[in-house]
Amino acid sequence: MTSTTEGAEAEPSRPARPRLVRELLLVAGLFLVYKAARQLAADHTTEAFRNAHRVWHAERAVHLPGEAAVQSLLLHGDTLIHLANTYYATVHFPATAGLLIWLYVKRPEHYVWTRRVLAALTGAALVLHLAFPLAPPRMLGEAHLIDTGRVYGPSVYGPPTTDHLSNQYAAMPSLHFGWAVMVAVALVVATRSRWRWLWLLHPLITLLVIVGTANHYWLDALAAGGLLALALVVVPRPHRRPAIPAPRREAAVGGGTALDGGTAGLLGATR
């Protein structure tokens, strides 16, 4: 057996890709559990508005910029606010699903890590949704903000009293923002292009959109960022495989012993 063969056998194998059916069932199950559990807090309307007043006054107390300042920028034209509503309605789930599919195919070790972080973040968010129901700023009269989805479209929500597909009183934390940050983090970690840092524009745009459309407070995004940071600390990152140098060309000399070119030449000179 040559050393080339030995080197090939010593090369670490690629991480095993999880079984597709298992992953689909796992992700679908987690999603259904999350959607079902969110409905438990859907009827806490009084508490949700009480918490909304608390969040609004807390933001003013710490001098956070008003959400109205961002919304006024988007309201300079119908096209801009329509694009913001469209981004809110259509990018959130497809971007996250697209990331998981790409990682599953191309970077299985990063897929497992990303899926675990997203699951931890979403689970923690669900606990906060149940413990702290919160009406979004578009529902808070004191905020004097426009429900841009309803006025300009498109909107993903119906009237809260008849909308049985979503819990509109689960503004904190903002999973729109938390998932967007994780999409960017995963792509920065899993790729090596010098342009990979541009993925950070996704959470930045998402932040401006969720605030400008009055679907979230600034504190919703801060809470999501804090939970994500905790999940990133708890879930270990995948280890990068060391680069394997190309095997050296070797010559077999007598008795099948493999020697490098320099040693073979030295033996030849002493004969």
Task: Tell me what you see in this structure.
There is one protein chain. With 271 residues, the protein is mainly α. The protein has twelve helices and two strands. The protein has a two-stranded antiparallel sheet. Strand 1 and strand 2 form a beta hairpin. Helix 6 runs parallel beside helix 9, helix 7 packs antiparallel against helix 9 and helix 9 packs across helix 11.
Q: In angstroms, what is the radius of gyration?
A: 26 Å
The beta-strand count equals 2
| Mean pLDDT across all amino acids | 82
Percent range for β-strand residues: under 5%
Residue ranges: pLDDT <50 for 5 or more in a row? 2-13, 248-271
Q: What would you call the shape? A: globular
Side-by-side strand order of the widest sheet: 1-2
N- and C-termini, Cα separation: 26 Å
| Main sheet: strands, sense, barrel | 2 strands, antiparallel
Number of helices: 12
User: Class by helix and strand content?
Assistant: mainly alpha
Q: What string gives the helices and strands in order?
A: HHHHHHHHHHHEEH
What is the topology?
Elements: H1 3-10, H2 20-38, H3 45-61, H4 67-74, H5 78-90, H6 92-106, H7 108-131, H8 148-152, H9 175-190, H10 201-212, H11 218-234, E1 250-253, E2 257-260, H12 261-270
Antiparallel strand pairs: 1-2
Helix pairs in contact: 2-7, 5-10, 6-7, 6-9, 7-9, 7-11, 9-10, 9-11
